[in-house]
Amino acid sequence: MNKNREIIVIGGGVIGLAIAVELKLRGAEVTVISRDVQQAASDAAAGMLAPMAEDIADTKMLDLCLRSRWLYPEWTSKLENLTGIATGYLPCGILAPLYGDGETGRIGDEETGSKTWLDRETINFYQSGLGQDVAGGWWYPEDGQVDNRCLMRSLIQAAQNLKIEIQEGVTVQAIQQRAGNVTNIMTSQGSFTAEKYVLATGSWASELLPVPVKPVKGQMMSLRMPHQPHEPYPLQRVLFGNNIYFVPRQDGRLILGATVEDVGWTPHNTPQGIQNLLNKATKLYSAVADWQIEEFWWGFRPGTPDELPILGISPCDNLYLATGHYRNGILLAPVTALLMTDLILEQKSDPLLPHFSWQRFSNQSQNKTVNSLNHDFNNGHNSLNVLNQDSANSESNGINLSLEVKEKSPMTIAASPLLSSHSQIISEDQPLIIAGKTFKSRLMTGTGKYPNIEAMQHSIVASGCEIVTVAVRRVQTKAAGHEGLAEAIDWQKIWMLPNTAGCKTADEAVRVARLGREMAKLLGQEDNNFVKLEVIPDAKYLLPDPIGTLEAAEQLVKEGFAVLPYINADPLLAKRLEEVGCATVMPLGSPIGSGQGIRNTANIEIIIEQSQIPVVVDAGIGTPSEAAQAMEMGADALLINSAIALAKNPPAMAQAMGLAAVAGRLAYLAGRIPVKQYASASSPLTGTIS
Ligand SMILES: Cc1cc2nc3c(=O)[nH]c(=O)nc-3n(C[C@H](O)[C@H](O)[C@H](O)COP(=O)(O)OP(=O)(O)OC[C@H]3O[C@@H](n4cnc5c(N)ncnc54)[C@H](O)[C@@H]3O)c2cc1C
């Protein structure tokens, strides 16, 4: 594992593989690290090559897409020659029918060589059977399609034939950086080192770096077109309608897509999504209502705020970014591979690249990480076996929501030693990621209020936590109960979260945060820039000062801290703190040490819903049931100190809290049943003795 490689590409979707193949063809030694090729959006896409039909407004993006489309014939034949696997590339043209009502805006567009207006009669000549409301449409003769699943097979084979090292089933967990360079990457199979790295992890990019990429779900389905011997299939060209498209494959499959849903990582096909597709499809071309359904699936497009990809060098000199291709990643694969290879091997930056640099987001996204509520990160390729009689679709894998051991994505959520030792509960959960650092445990604890150091040590171990917060001031001044504390914890295993407890103003908190960073360094955590920000002027209720907290957070973010602010459960403040670049928000459930539990459920729920960074419920939790409640609500983690330290038996309570955090998380992932007004019998009522 420790050999030094030349280039590591992280992510084995169409973008990662296309770059890897191009790099290798130009003489570089390449390794691809891929968590799970089946979860890639590349497998879930429709494969339209549609720069014109997509009506792309950004002129540089349009240039990029057109260049890629022009590269397609040569690129796919190169792959086909290398592998003997057809990619299904077909420059079949795209018809974009428009309805008379509400869509007339585009009817008046100008014609150019690459698009022609067709009136109702002519469009029906091109494609019979279109809906009655179709008033005409555009014909884009140069757009086309590729069978993206065949393309993926061809790319994987090409990589294998070229002897590219592919590490499939390996997850990159963190990118280790030092002085503006990536030193190595930490993976589920140990550490890997290379001279250069490429991040091509699609929708999952922000798990590893603070880039604003988020999943945009699309549901899809396929039908089988009826076919008479010696006759062509009824659909020959892509139909690009109003929020519906038909992509007829050469083997008789018809791909229907796609919904566009901003629902995070919510998996599955839903009745509403499919109904939506079918309503639109039958309006455009009613014959499909009688055709055989073959398959349903969904995928996550890597979306960015401006819907443009992120391409080019990263803030690290030896790390390159190729992600955020949103709706056009299949189309953009060849040009991305070409431009990135020029950049990586020859330091040649195409004039288009700066437009797609990560820096366009740098003001908003510095030091941000995303919410890690990724409870099913497979793109679901769910064959309906009953309906699917075509073995050509056997590549489709059923996804699995149950809690089972899956070797390819081993993310343990078992935090407590008790759980992990005797029932290995492994689910398709993501770890907790804060400022790029990965944690398995979702419980953080503290060091204050314990009866003695031993109780604290045992409790930390029993809780299974990996983050312990330490009051910088109390350790520095060796306040009562804090003598020898710094030495009592094994900082090789526990990540220190210095906190600014005791600070009443923003200025004080900033000064103490700096001391905290030095303290972490002295204790061997050189790269620890975390600070739990507490600005608390109010001695009675210990409620944090929102204005002072925001001011201090802004300053600390500027100084490069990963700021975890302790706040009242105020959704607007949480959003502002996220915007200034905080790494998490830590809303209180009720006043510190009060053990009143979660008194502000509604506000915390809003914070969780809105937040793109982890939400850590802090303060007030008194019992494991309250800890579980916070996790069931969807909190990413908990910080619990008093309830453990002041319990009669702190280690036992610590363990209970650890279990509760796991139980709550599991329950959240499992999804609770709806609350109903009336009973519903567990066993059927038929067949009972009367
Ligand atoms: C429903 C739908 C329809 C679409 N239709 C079209 C279309 O018609 N035309 C078009 O051009 N585009 C289309 N797209 C968009 C296109 O699919 C994507 O833009 C493209 O696939 C993105 O490719 P990628 O390689 O960046 O990401 P992905 O294909 O998602 O691949 C990312 C890979 O990285 C891996 N990975 C993630 N995190 C890690 C990690 N930490 N360690 C190791 N590996 C990791 C994942 O396992 C995955 O295999 C569609 C997308 C969807 C969802």
Describe it for me?
By secondary structure, this protein is α/β, with parallel strands linked by helices. The protein contains 19 helices and 31 strands. It has two domains: 1-87 and 146-211 and 304-361, FAD/NAD(P)-binding domain, CATH 3.50.50; 362-670, Alpha-Beta Barrel (TIM Barrel), CATH 3.20.20.70. Helices cover 30% and strands 22% of the residues. The N and C termini lie far apart (70 Å). The chain binds flavin-adenine dinucleotide.
What's the topology here?
Elements: E1 4-10, H1 14-25, E2 30-34, H2 41-44, E3 48-49, H3 59-83, E4 94-99, E5 116-119, H4 120-126, E6 134-140, E7 144-145, H5 148-161, E8 165-168, E9 172-178, E10 181-187, E11 190-199, E12 214-224, E13 238-240, E14 245-248, E15 253-257, H6 271-284, E16 292-303, E17 310-313, E18 319-323, H7 329-346, H8 362-365, E19 381-383, E20 411-412, H9 417-422, E21 426-427, E22 432-434, E23 437-439, E24 443-446, H10 453-463, E25 467-471, H11 472-476, H12 485-488, E26 495-499, H13 506-522, E27 530-533, H14 546-558, E28 562-567, H15 571-579, E29 586-587, H16 601-610, E30 616-618, H17 624-632, E31 637-640, H18 642-645, H19 650-670
Parallel strand pairs: 1-2, 1-11, 2-8, 4-13, 11-18, 24-25, 24-31, 25-26, 27-28, 28-29, 30-31
Antiparallel strand pairs: 3-7, 4-6, 5-6, 9-10, 10-11, 12-15, 12-16, 13-14, 14-15, 16-19, 17-18, 20-21, 22-23
Q: What structural category do the secondary elements indicate?
A: alpha/beta
Overall geometric form? globular
Kindly report the average pLDDT value. 86
What is the highest CATH level, the class of the largest domain? Alpha Beta
CATH architecture of the largest domain: Alpha-Beta Barrel
Determine the N-to-C terminus distance: 70 Å
* Helicity, as a percent range: 25-40%
Largest sheet: 9 strands, mixed
Bound molecules: flavin-adenine dinucleotide
- CATH topology-level name of the largest domain: TIM Barrel
